[in-house]
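Posting for a labmate who doesn't have an account.
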Amino acid sequence: MKHPLEFEKPILELQRKLDELRKHPHAGSLGLTLEDEVSRIERKLAETRREVFSNLTAWQRVQLARHPRRPYTLDYLRDTFTDFQELHGDRLFADDRAMVGGFARLQGQPVMVIGTQKGRDTKENILRNFGSAHPEGYRKALRLMRLADKFGLPIITLIDTAGAYPGVGAEERHIAEAIAVNLREMTLLEVPIIAVVIGEGGSGGALGIGVADRVLILENAYYSVISPEGCAAILWKDRAAAQRAAEALRITATDLLELGLVDEIVPEPLGGAHSDPTTMAETLKVYLLRHLHETEAIEPSERLRLRYEKFRRIGQVAEAPGVLGPAPTA
């Protein structure tokens, strides 16, 4: 198990014991006794894995959403889609490698796929800016979406970003304006749009490609206006309170579905998407095809009306006293 998380350590320990038994030099001579022990540990391992991953806290799901081996946009473009042809540049400033997109096929059907892309190592993370797009990334995304609308191609967006890049250069090139324009224009595109949160769904950086007819979320992904660490730093003046903030923010897939902020949860393999990327890619394909067929069956004018009403409903909340704990002192 590469990059084990803290709560995965009991599973890792059992797996190590199992591997040691299987490599035992006298395995053949020990016969049934060793086989019984292997079977016992295998049952214990399966039971422990089910128990751990059936009772994850919000913070543990955030950790899974950030797992360095979790499938990223380009992985799904390879395994869920076919014939991907990447398109580059916003035709205004530059090509942002944190935002990728282009033509592809979903089980033979032409679509436009756009998504944020993180890196696997330091070199690639620098190239991809850790998945945090600049203004030109969102302008590239809008250019591709308008191209899809022109040719009548459905749009699928894959969201996995901690947020849009907050640096000086991004502010100078009007990051807020670029995202705001995307929000406006995505409500007006006549083709079906499906958005999927595949990992982190951070703030406006996620919403900039997230206005869609259907918003799906992977089981261990999260979608939030602020990171748990950022929330903890503001409310409790201590980033160490991130676990408490994750619970209070209600950012998990189950919470978001209950609140009506997403339309469906895409189940992950036991252990998270990174434990079986091939199965995850096939599962995502099934869900995308179903929602694509459903949205294509709706008349464009009705689809636009439903999309508008969907996002107008968001934000109607009732506050429960004491949810966030005592108010911070100055």
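Reply:
Got it, the structure tokens are right above this. The chain has two domains: 7-55, 62-312.
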